[in-house]
Amino acid sequence: MDAKILIESFADFARSKNVDRPTMIRILEDVFRAMIRKKFETDENFDVTINADQGDLEIFRIREIVDDNSEDIWDFDKISFTEARKIEPDFEIGEEVYEKIELEEFGRRAVQMARQTLIQRIKDLEKDILYNKYEEQVGEIISAEVYQILGREILLIDGDGNELILPKAEQISKDRFRKGDSVKAIVHRVDMINGNPKIILSRTSPVFLERLFENEVPEVYDGLITIVKIVREPGERAKVAVESYDDRIDPVGACVGMKGSRIHAVVRELQNENIDVINYTENLELYVTRALSPAKVSSINVDEERKRISVFLKPDQVSLAIGKGGFNIKLASRLVGYEIDVFRELNEYDDEDVDLNEFVDEIDAWIIDELKKTGLDTAKSVLALTKEDLTRRTELEEETVDEIFRILRQEFEQ
């Protein structure tokens, strides 16, 4: 294989991988200089000129002519007067000899190795380009096409044919995709595993919801409205705290849109995830009240030292504060950064009810705390639930729930 064929074939391959010309020339020169070092031990006195467009390669070995008896005659950049005269009869001592080295002089095996090295260098460069491309897009939304659905992940292809991965853990539980579907997700992270970039996408990250708001709400994209914090139970519920520094802009109204037009697009993308948009405030009690919406809070006690908040509500508001599956209170706690305990307000008709603290001798204190976290602070509020409801709300063992019911029923039987 001569130099022209080698360079042209490499240039075509490089162009097919969208490698720019300067990079292509640099790789070619690096590989040829490696060949020179292997044959001559150094490339310091060699000049390599490449024209990738024409397939031209010129390698010149440059040496200074010295007297045959000179002490420097064995230096890599010196040549004896006698040897120089064999190249050109009219050379004189002190002049430089430019000796052209043909590619064939390196041997057929070296040339084949150079060809393989060039291809590998481009493949490695392609991996680096892919890694850098997506590393710069971490946290940004992209669209990709599903091409294979596996048990633990979905493989997607971007517009350039690169493979992307959407793990099961980063999918919304209600997501159902088929081959050929277009999927929106954020670039969650980019890993380099055994020299190969692995692009991980996510649809469950709070950042995904934030980017969807930026796409649907111009005021968020322009920075007129700031998203302070987002907490999510993907596919179920999310709470988004927003604020605006412009009093003329209602941040909640702008995010929801006329008749919910803006937020509906976000909800649809998230498989009907219930999204609460609330006004952020530094007033903690007001912030908690807003975070527990749609429940109406009667009063709040804040324990700064323990980072806990006790919230008191009317009996008919407790279930609203807790929410389906306990998501509302869990998300509210994460949003405000405090553990929230919900309590029912007792009225004059609740005289026959008994506070759970009265059973501390029979029921472990940690179990009572678990019940209170879900707004169950009296015996009747617990007995109003079924065994299945209580188990689901508290995640207590069935045997423990049975014992709780036995103790509380016994109280009223007496």
Structure description:
The protein is α/β, with parallel strands linked by helices and 414 residues long. 39% of the residues lie in helices and 26% in strands. β10 and β11 form a beta hairpin. The longest helix is centred in the N-terminal third of the chain and has 28 residues, at 108-135. The radius of gyration is 36 Å and the shape is elongated. Monomer. Binds directly to the core enzyme of the DNA-dependent RNA polymerase and to nascent RNA. Residues 139-204 form the S1 motif domain. It comes from Algoriphagus oliviformis.
Write the layout of secondary structure elements.
Blueprint: H1 3-16, H2 21-40, E1 46-51, E2 56-66, E3 78-80, H3 81-87, E4 96-101, H4 108-135, E5 141-149, E6 153-157, E7 163-167, E8 182-193, E9 196-202, H5 206-216, H6 218-221, E10 225-233, E11 237-244, H7 251-256, H8 261-269, E12 274-279, H9 284-291, E13 297-303, E14 308-313, H10 315-322, H11 327-336, E15 339-344, H12 365-373, H13 379-383, H14 387-394, H15 398-413
Parallel strand pairs: 2-3, 7-9, 11-12, 14-15
Antiparallel strand pairs: 1-2, 2-4, 5-6, 5-8, 6-7, 8-9, 10-11, 13-14
Helix pairs in contact: 1-4, 2-4, 5-8, 9-11
Function: Participates in both transcription termination and antitermination.
InterPro entries: DNA_repair_Rad51/TF_NusA_a-hlx (IPR010995), KH_dom-like_a/b (IPR015946), KH_NusA_2nd (IPR058582), KH_sf_prok-type (IPR009019), NA-bd_OB-fold (IPR012340), NusA_N_sf (IPR036555), S1_domain (IPR003029), TF_NusA (IPR010213)
Domain S1 motif: 139-204
